[in-house]
Design a protein that fits this description.
Blueprint: H1 4-7, E1 20-26, E2 38-42, H2 54-67, H3 70-73, E3 74-81, E4 94-99, E5 104-105, H4 116-130, H5 162-174, H6 179-193
Antiparallel strand pairs: 1-2, 1-3, 3-4, 4-5
Helix pairs in contact: 2-4, 5-6
């Protein structure tokens, strides 16, 4: 049987289920279309899982912006943390970072909220970038003590109702988890609730 997800276009942004999104304000000389002043990006693609560590997720996206030369092509990039379950909205979502060509800015009210690992990464990233060094080595290594398989261990969950279980399963499929794994987990967990 052919997988219907394989026939769909890949790399389609998922603005509803992403954690972060950003606006790239293009320099006038970097615009291929003079009317195109900014671009929008998202931390998740449809039918793909986002990094479980939200710090590693944002670090990977900053590295992607650097690798694709967007930081150099922009006056600045605003990065927002999106409200769960809503479409991105500049007036409702939390602006967490501003990336500039040679520096970055964290809103003063979020200085204590931003994780230490992200602050250290940004400091090291801009030191390397301003010194014309590579930023590839700055990406944190994945935590080998946690496995994605832990997601489907029954004892690690405590759903209160069938509705909670169904909602969680739907979210996992939307995040790109294999439907067969999610359905198998559902069948195994359901007897605990009925």
């Amino acid at each position: 049987m052919k997988n219907p997800l394989q026939t769909q276009k890949t790399n389609v942004p998922d603005p509803l289920y992403c954690t972060y999104w950003w606006i790239i304000y293009l320099k006038s000389e970097a615009r291929t279309n003079p009317n195109l002043e900014h671009l929008t990006g998202y931390s998740k693609m449809q039918y793909q899982a986002e990094n479980q560590s939200k710090v590693n997720c944002i670090i990977a996206k900053i590295n992607m912006l650097e690798k694709n030369n967007w930081i150099a092509k922009s006056t600045h990039i605003e990065i927002y943390k999106k409200n769960a379950g809503e479409l991105p909205n500049k007036s409702k979502d939390l602006l967490i970072l501003d990336l500039f060509n040679h520096d970055y800015s964290i809103p003063p009210n979020l200085i204590n909220w931003i994780p230490y690992e992200l602050k250290k990464y940004l400091k090291d990233f801009y030191e390397a970038r301003n010194g014309n060094a590579t930023t590839k080595a700055l990406i944190p290594l994945p935590d080998k003590t946690k496995s994605k398989d832990d997601l489907f261990i029954l004892s690690k969950h405590n759903f209160k109702s069938v509705k909670d279980l169904v909602s969680w399963c739907e979210l996992q499929v939307q995040n790109g988890e294999a439907r067969i794994l999610v359905e198998n987990f559902y069948r195994k967990y359901l007897p605990k609730l009925v």
